[in-house]
Amino acid sequence: MEPIRRDALVRATIAEIGAAGTLDVTVSQIARRAGMSSALAHHYFGGKDQIFLAAMRHILRGFRAEVVTALRAAQTPRARAEALIDASFAASSFDPATISAWMTLYAQAATHPETNRLLRLYQLRLHGNLRHALRPLSTSSDADAAMLGALIDGLYLRAALGGGTTAQAARATAHRALGQLIGGQS
Amino acid sequence: MEPIRRDALVRATIAEIGAAGTLDVTVSQIARRAGMSSALAHHYFGGKDQIFLAAMRHILRGFRAEVVTALRAAQTPRARAEALIDASFAASSFDPATISAWMTLYAQAATHPETNRLLRLYQLRLHGNLRHALRPLSTSSDADAAMLGALIDGLYLRAALGGGTTAQAARATAHRALGQLIGGQS
DNA sequence: TTTTATTGATTGACGAGTCAATAAAAAACC
DNA sequence: GGTTTTTTATTGACTCGTCAATCAATAAAA
Hints:
Two copies of one chain form a homodimer.
Chain A: H1 2-20, H2 27-33, H3 38-45, H4 48-73, H5 77-88, H6 96-109, H7 113-134, H8 141-160, H9 167-181
Chain A binds a DNA duplex (30 and 30 nucleotides) through helix 3.
């Protein structure tokens, strides 16, 4: 039972955060959506924080899976870098629940050590992937990877928070930057 | 009395957010730090949300002032672009209170319309300033400004959330990107 | 005497986490 | 195979804290 319940709770958490647009959702709401009592949610997770962390890990795992499949299809180094960009701006990254969770991750990373660890994990992985892709293309792959990684995060922020920028435009900007970074031909 | 009290409350709010490292600060805490009762805080501001919004506006105003003075000292277009970068990574932007406030701004922008407006205002201003600085230097100043703006935000995020990146490194990366964007010489 | 400034005390709502009690399944025993 | 015992799953009801917001009362100016 335990794994089933935990999984249902994680899914319900993401759905609920997405619907509410904020992390201010009660354990009772989550539990109700998952079809159980709040007491049971506490029983299996121990506390709200841990439910939320599990949800975060779930989202990060999903993103990682997307990256892996995108990379598998890429043959050239440049295609690998492009695949990393595309994964970051994939539709699933712009699901309202994912956006909210992501923003909350940022907001909490300043105080909550475990959350900070998660965020850094994501950043390090992205950086590592980018550096690996850029190594054959650039003499300063490390610095370039740092730049591209930050650019991706910044673009995501703008696209996610609904300003003028759309996900498509953000993706295009990132590709343009990549083109500028490593010499010319597409 | 009213303007004095309001100002004291805004300052106390920022200080308290900085000390707590989160937006989870009670009106009573803020009021105590400002040397008055929570009832008075409510009396002058009407509610917690409005106190926070006032604090956000205060921070944004401070940032804007920093930008203005930095720009005034810049003579060439390139110096203007560099001044904009430096203002973004100035020490005051990394005050714990400022960091927390920014993160909260992002987290709330998804739901809270007034907060969203504030964020967009900041983004538009930065974009406008960058575009103006880049216009004599680039044939695609608009797209370049969009890229630099997003890059700045992304770098700030990484520097603020304490990963490996420091504020200095972030600044250097942004300068490097600027150099790459507009042809070579420093 | 009216207006402005100020607060202590209170209210009302909400929500995390606990607990004792029940139902259901599994295991142990004869 | 059937009965008892133990373990697992589940919940309703409750406790305990917290906190935003209100209000009636008081002090101080104007």
